[in-house]
Amino acid sequence: MSDRRGRKLATREARLAAEARARAQARGRDRRRALGGVLAVAIAVVVAAVAISSGGGSANAASGGRLKGAALSAALFAGIPQHGNLLGRASAPVRLVEFADLQCPYCDEYTVQALPTLVRDYVRTGEVSMRFENLSFIGPGSVAAGRVAAAAAKHDRLWNFVDLMYLNQGEENTGYVTPSYLRRLLEAVPGLNVAAALRASAAPAADAALAGASDLASRAGIDATPSFLIGRAGGPLRQFAPSSLTAAPFATTFANLLKGSR
Length: 262
Hints:
By secondary structure, the chain is an alpha+beta fold.
């Protein structure tokens, strides 16, 4: 499990670095040469991913080791408005609602594979807002983490906490979601009053937030995680089943919705 966490963080770091290099090359005067550079970077990322998957990695917070991804996560969300469980401008022309369990490995896959690119290209630009609805059904650890996530939302830092939870996620229902683990995640969230968040996580409002998400999912016909609702601002939301949990299917759908809002 510790190796999987190490591979996950390395994959995110490698992909973001590759994208940055590709964008820089694409701005060069020789577009043909730039394309060759992009292809070379893509090949390098694949090679790196294969090498990473063959071994290595170190224990993460879920297994008692070092907390992973704190700086990367902080940079991802820096400067983007958060209000409760909403990320981005409330007036963004496209809305995405994610239903997830913090112990769900497929939600974790989406967070690593798709979320950083979507946040950078669509949320940070003001074109898309994202809302997180926490479905805590996998086990007691999901409920415990969900309460803390609700408390982080009260302090407008939910997305930072959720991202760190996924970057350090352990095997579901193995007891890794302990009070000390959750505190370590909170302590890595920039600008968060940890003591106040812990108090809020024990308040009835935290349970009410989880119950509200469950009720919303039931009314929307959501029965699995991750699941998504998507639509233009001011219009109805519809269920969206992406073809994969990478950024590409989301980006295509966003582009189609944004065409109609301009």
